[in-house]
Here is the input.
Amino acid sequence: MVKVQRIVLDVLKPHSPNGLEFSMQLAEKCPGCQFNFKVLEVDEKTETVIIIVESESIPFDDVFDAIAVMGGSIHSIDEVDVIGVNDSADSSMQTNV
Here is the structure.
């Protein structure tokens, strides 16, 4: 099993919701995750932002869905930190030969 512990996303979002509201809504959808939000560029109708998500195990599908619901789209995944974890259920099913 693999846990995603940190992910850096390049996101295009509309001006509304603003950065604080956007981050708070992400945090509500993903309890236990810490979000860092940084604006890189502002255009007439959109903002390009970097969102850094950190947690013991990030529910990335929930993060991606929450961004889409607020009108954002992920341009790229710029960084990822993952860790492999032993799955106790699988190891208990193994037998010595």
User: Anything to note?
Assistant: The chain has one domain: 2-85. Residues 12 and 48 are 5 Å apart (CA to CA).
